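Example record for the data management plan.
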Amino acid sequence: MFDFAKKEKEILEFWAKNGIFEKLREKIKGKAPWSFLDGPITANNPMGVHHAWGRTYKDLFQRYKAMQGFDQRFQNGFDCQGLWVEVEVEKELGFKSKKDIEKYGVAEFVEKCKERVKKYSDVQTQQSIRLGQWMDWENSYFTMSDENNYAIWHFLKVCNDRGLIYKGHDSVPWCPRCETAISQHEILTEDYKELTHDSIIIELPIIERENEFLLVWTTTPWTIPANIAVAVDADIDYSLVKGGETDDKFWVATALVDKIFQGKVVEVLNTVKGEKLQDLHYKSAFDTLPAVIKAHEENPEKFHSVIITDPLLMPINIEEGTGLVHTAVSAGEEDFKLGKKLGLPMIPVIGDNADYLEGLGEFSGKNAKNNPEIILDYMKDWAFSVFPYQHRYPACWRCKTELVWKVADEWYIKMDELRSSLTKVVKKIKWLPEFGLDRELDWLKNMHDWLISKKNRYWGLALPIFECQCGNFEVIGSKEELEKRAIEGWEEFASPAGGHSPHKPFIDKVKIKCSKCGEIVSRIADVGNPWLDAGIVPYSTIKYFSDKKYWSQWFPPEFICESFPGQFKNWFYSIIVMSTVLENELPAKTIFGYASVRDEKGEEMHKSKGNTIWFDDAVEKVGADPMRWVYSKQNPVNNLNFGWKVIDEAKRKLLNLLNSVTFLKTYADSPAGEQFPTSNILDKWVIASLNKLV
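Corresponding structural encoding:
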């Protein structure tokens, strides 16, 4: 049996010993350029077989263009900063929260993150070489580099000069384990899981109406202490229903009466449009808690009242639930937007780790997500019914913890002002497959402002935003500008003895003077969204700041290649935004995408399921060429179901080719031997065609 792995290692050794790649580069040097930009692989773990699919494509395209005689840069990239690295380092060190990091030391933790990146960038380099990929491995770029970080500073400075950066107070998806906001761009479809939570329909007694209640349903009981209002649709019919042996009467959407009362005999006492319920006030189980009392005192007219929804902000579904929607302004995205429009008060209920805040009585200090029973137990006398409910619920893309929604001060880039320009740029790009254009346009149409900040994190871009207590904030656009503006801490940060990279905690030694009031100002503590890191690489890696002639020669790249599913809202999106802002130019002429690698049964690969196949295991078992064959023949539109049966089929096809070569070598005439003349015109044509080919 032919040993692919053994033969491949012999070939790799031959390439290295004879400098084959270097000879190729010398041969094409100075010829017409063909620019390829590598989307950076995260240097955080060894490669899986899914990584090898994209790297095979990249190698094929670059080899093909080299065979055509085009000069190339052959630069590989590594993504370095962000939660993906932080979470793994926390696991290594046995940390459970940010308190452990701060006790260990931020500088020491950041250094550990750098070490992990360096370790796995080396591992991935060797794995890529084993795959047969040709790159200039000695000159890979790293998104943690000074060049990359300062390039992002420049981009943010340009954004601020155009009035695009602002500090928002908003309800955001929040990971209680990582204790940071998760942007819209980071929540992928695969991060939504089918989960079952206890849901509750609660009875809220209407003030000054005897035995009359609002029936309100929620799938997130932990948010009930934050309740401010009950939303109804002005145009939906609502009925007052009497059922059971008591005199209690309940308001519910007319269309849901049978579903809620499950066929029991009920008496419909009244039916009105939702608008007739507006401004009714009700009591809740939490009215005696200090935080709730405070919200009532601040705005008694709108506190615990029935409000009319805006269907564009909070549509009301009459296929499930009760048709009356629990509105917790501080604990939901739609709730916050509607509350902001209507001027509703707000009750903040959880801290960064999802513990209930002070002012919530017996709940204070207890975790809202880890202890869902505490609310249900407390509300047992207010519960109409409690039942399990299966729904799609988002989790942190990195640690897989269920998300919550909380109000936080975060930094954003306005997108409405850019939407038209972004759309024009996207339409200039050639998308392969063609449906990529529609996917990207759909994302641009529906995207929110870009949340670029991450609180309570340590390993990442130091956002160059200096915010003064007077309300003024300034964005620093370069290392040189920071040095010029610095009034203290510069020597400690940038001295030859220190020579620190622009990361926490070193960069935070530097203070500037507020240009508005003259006070000393520190950098905000936040780090940046990690997609800023990868989005700037068309500029940071092609000498945009140091050699514009060189940059013009290689920009925009002819071709980029990454997996489609998540990149429409991540890397593709970030390079499009940053290139549009900086040059109003497309970031690449062609964007080629491919689907996802699944297991042999078509199921997603996960370590927890035990169906993940690591690259090292696969390449030693079957060799790289059979894997490359499988990747190359796959229609990139379709998911690739990877398994040993698929590989065995590829090996058989390759063995047929090898057997043909062996047959030819064994029986074909020696090129140096005696040639037999032929007068047959067809034979002459075949020989001429062969000579033309070789």
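Summary line stored alongside the record: The chain has three domains: 4-157+538-657, 191-405, 464-525.
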